Amino acid sequence: MRKIFCLVLIVLCSVSAFCVSDEDTVQVKKRSAMAYSGYQGGMMFNVGYVESRDFQFQDNSGLPLGQSGRLSGASMGLGGALRVGFGKYLRVGIEGYVSTLKYKPKGSSAKIGWGGLLLDSHWHIKKFTIFAGGVIGGGAYTHITMIDKEGESDVVNDYVVENQYVSYRHYPFLAVVPFVGMEYSLTKRISVVAKIDYMLNVTNWADDYAAGPRFFVGFMFGR
Predict the structure, then answer these.
(1) Are 28 and 43 contacting, i.e. CB atoms less than 8 angstroms apart?
(2) What is the pLDDT of residues 187-221, one digit of tens each?
(3) Which end of the chain has fewer CB atoms within 10 angstroms, the N or the C?
């Protein structure tokens, strides 16, 4: 997924450079309805509330291991996006993020990393830009759980974990992520952006997969 993300990034940057060069050297008599209209790139912080279904760990013999669980709580992370505009309303690009939920016992976490192709439509209202669209791409879910064997779940000061198993689950999935958001132009090249999305795990939705709405805020730079 990382190689695909880098490849798409290189292609988009090349297209942007070509379009800018073409506008500078060729006199265009009539602007096309889908002509290049600029690019944006930036970073965003995300926070959300996620929740899973009930799940139960098992030992090698298939017997229940510990109590059944359900993940719920606040997840946080970082990421960024690159978007190239075509015409008045269309933007195409890529984005990628990481979001992590940490929970007790200490050392347990559920992390999602995802990225893919972005497509949105946007409408300008003075200094505000309202947009809606979606991302399709790949995601990976990593779930690490400290499972108590004896009813105790403390990690002692010498970093020795007593009476515990560790569960490690990692699986990929196809992600479809619809979103809506708004930008406010601080200058001609700098904007504050905020959006809300919801990730749909299309191909591998396990019981311990934690999903929910996420709120993003950050800065975008472009021309």
Answers:
(1) no
(2) 989 999 999 999 999 999 999 999 999 999 999 99
(3) C
